[in-house]
From TrEMBL:
Residues 272-366, 400-495 form the Cytochrome c domain. PROSITE patterns: CYTC (PS51007). This is Cbb3-type cytochrome c oxidase subunit II. Keywords: Heme, Iron, Metal-binding. It comes from Mesorhizobium onobrychidis. Transmembrane segments: none annotated. It comes from the Bacteria.
Length: 561
């Protein structure tokens, strides 16, 4: 018997063994027998704590998306497993636990990391970012080798003309294509903006509404658009991707690599750094913010809820200065952290030199008024940022402070835009616009997706400075400091014990909620997670982190098992 024959037989045996164990057996004998996971929750007092809880099954839409994920072969390149080593956890997030796979048959662990690991991708990017990414990955990630998935979009061949609707608005010509996507007789409108190339994205929520084409700053100068419409398969796929990792709750708010708190960075103007910043911008930022920094990049049409920032207008939302322009430290904080709930991702993986260089390019090349070519007005040179405002140590939170915050919420009339419950559905919400003329929705404060950051200091900063370019005002002069702190704690409390993805209240017993609300309870990591019943987990082996382990007798005893 030759060695070649033995190798052939062994190879065939291994192939079929792998096929049976990884392809067929998981359908009949799932390896994950527990749905126990540790997750981060926000308490009523704004603290973030780990606790033992249960993973949830996929919704019908997420199940559809998982089927699309399998059908399209996404799992060929993307793994869904964070290994327990430092490089893994600092790049992706907390180590995966066996309970996260309770509803996955077959499992999609994967080992070929041609693309990024996706087990912690949920809510890392907005739905709009994913839409642009599936249309053309290289608009957002020039280094990506992922193929476009335009087959998931409905892309009619015939362009549709932009016409006047007779009431002073621009709309689309009625054709079999447009009438199949919209209801022109509806009183409910959907406002859409094509990109500079004439591509118009149509989301699922546009179905049954009348289209209004919004081009307040000549974002598109043509008279006809090419349509790329969202489909149910695409909607489901994005819903599935956003679910991944969300059984671990608000863990991203505790993710150390993207945490950055800086007040000032002194960085003199440098032509060499500006040149490097231009390279960084063209590779990382141009897809959304555009060649000229006007917020009209090729991906902008997909960002129909929140348009990209226009650097040319020199209006920046996030700062800690009395004057409108931010410091280098403010810009570095925003770039590093990203803007949660929007298409602006966290760029903590980008080298610090790249982040500092792109700040130079934004300040001195993009934030310039060129309406008079003979005398361009460089905002950061003519109106340099003033000194940073001081934020002191926040007061110790209490029930009395929350009650005061609720009163301030009413006094400041926050409910007019954000709604009585903070869901962004106030009576003035529908008519709000930003300074560039685009519709803007108030934040849903119950989701916990705070744009400026998740700490009470971040909320206080927003209350103090407002958000430039938006209807969100500054309360620095109208509310005393103690009221701003109280209001900030109250805003945090609106997202307490809520599912970060679905927004639904978490099923937590009153006694466990009271225990988690104790300010002295330490539960800052999965191995110290609070276990319902009041017993803290002692080590990671009790949690079954990534090793198929089961819950301990201590956990069963705490639950009366």
């Amino acid at each position: 018997m030759s060695a070649r024959f033995v190798t052939l037989v062994a190879g065939i045996f291994c192939f079929f063994a792998a096929l049976i164990t990884q392809g067929f057996l998981p359908f009949f004998e799932p390896s994950a027998r527990t749905n126990r996971v540790t997750a981060v929750v926000r308490t009523d007092f704004g603290q973030l704590k780990w606790m033992m809880t249960q993973a949830t099954d996929y919704t019908p839409l997420q199940k559809l998306g998982r089927d699309v994920y399998l059908r399209e072969g996404c799992w060929y390149c993307h793994s869904q497993y964070v290994r327990p080593v430092t490089g893994e956890t600092r790049r992706w997030g907390p180590v995966t636990e066996s309970g996260e796979f309770a509803y996955d048959v077959p499992h999609l662990f994967g080992t070929r990391r041609i693309g990024p690991d996706l087990m912690r991708v949920g809510l890392k990017f907005s739905d709009e970012w994913h839409l642009a990414h599936f249309w053309n990955p290289r608009m957002l990630s020039p280094d990506s080798i992922m193929a476009p998935y335009r087959g998931l979009f409905d892309t009619p061949e015939q362009p549709v003309k932009i016409v006047d609707d007779g009431a002073g608005n621009r709309t689309l010509e009625r054709t079999p294509v447009s009438e199949g996507l919209f209801d022109f007789a509806s009183k409910e409108q959907i406002k859409l903006t094509p990109n500079a190339d004439g591509l118009l994205f149509v989301p699922m929520q546009a179905r049954g509404k009348a289209p209004v084409i919004v081009i307040p700053n000549e974002e598109y100068k043509g008279d006809a658009v090419k349509i790329a419409a969202e489909t149910k398969d695409l909607e489901g796929l994005i819903a599935y991707i956003q679910k991944l990792g969300m059984d671990r709750g608000k863990w991203r708010d505790l993710f150390e690599p993207q945490q950055l708190e800086v007040t000032e960075v002194t960085f003199p103007r440098s032509s060499e750094w500006i040149a490097h910043g231009r390279e960084v911008y063209e590779r990382r930022c141009l897809g959304c913010h555009g060649v000229n920094g006007d917020g009209n990049g090729p991906a902008a049409t997909f960002l129909y809820k929140q348009r990209p920032r226009s650097f040319a207008a020199a209006v920046f939302k996030f700062r800690l200065t009395k004057e409108p322009l931010p410091t280098d430290g403010d810009l570095l904080r925003t770039i590093t952290r990203g803007v949660r709930g929007t298409a602006m991702p966290a760029w903590y993986e980008l080298p610090l030199t790249d982040r500092l260089a792109v700040i130079q390019y934004i300040k001195y090349e993009l934030a310039v008024d060129r309406s008079d070519p003979a005398e361009p007005y460089a905002f950061f040179i003519e109106e340099p940022p003033g000194p940073p405002l001081y934020i002191g140590k926040p007061p110790t939170v209490s029930q009395a402070i929350l009650e005061r915050g609720k009163e301030v919420w009413k006094i400041a009339k926050c409910w007019e835009c954000h709604g009585q419950g903070g869901k962004g559905d106030g009576q003035k919400a529908a008519g709000l616009k930003d300074d560039l003329g685009f519709s803007i929705l108030p934040a849903d404060l119950t989701s916990g997706q705070f744009k400026s950051g998740s700490a009470v200091e971040d909320i206080f900063r927003t209350m103090t400075t407002g958000l430039s370019g938006t209807p969100m005002p500054s309360y620095r002069d109208s509310l005393p400091e103690e009221d701003r702190w109280a209001l900030s704690y109250y805003v945090l409390a609106l997202s307490a014990y809520k599912d970060p993805l679905a927004g639904a209240p978490l099923a937590i017993a009153d006694k466990d909620r009271a225990a988690l609300n104790e300010l002295t309870l330490e539960a800052g990591s999965p191995d110290k997670a609070y276990v319902p019943g009041g017993v803290p987990a002692q080590n990671t082996s009790e949690l079954g982190e990534g090793n198929g382990g089961s819950v301990t007798e201590k956990q069963n005893a705490a639950e009366g098992g």
